[in-house]
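Feature request, filed as a ticket because there's no other form

It would be nice if the structure record came with a short human-readable summary line next to the tokens. Right now we just get the raw output. Example of a typical job, pasted below so the devs can see what we mean:
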Amino acid sequence: MINALPLALAAFLSLAPAKPAHKPVVASPVADNASFVLVENHRNVPVEVFVEAFDGEQSLGMVAPGAAETLALDPAITSDHEVSFLLDPKGEEVQATQLIPLTPGKGIELKVPARPNLLW
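Raw output as currently delivered:
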């Protein structure tokens, strides 16, 4: 399913109205055996993504408004089996996911909705 995601994402982004200031960004592919999170940011502000595990939190990167980024997870974090993600939209309240089980080499998809408090 995750292999078809880039095509579906490209189709989705091509239907969105053109935004001259921001083009959708696709990060470099992660290694085949690495776990990753695909973040789609539907907000009009950048969102910093953190992963929270038993030993603290780690910044994964920033996702531009209207963009999608594939962010690699540190192998040490994926050994925790369950993590939560913190999403920090610039100038807005931080949101957190519930605990999400991780499988090494598999991806997780997070969508940041256009409106706060509606994680998909």
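Something like this underneath would help us a lot:
Strands lie at 36-41, 47-53, 56-63, 68-72, 82-89, 95-96, 100-101, 107-112.
Residues 5-15 form the longest helix (11 residues).
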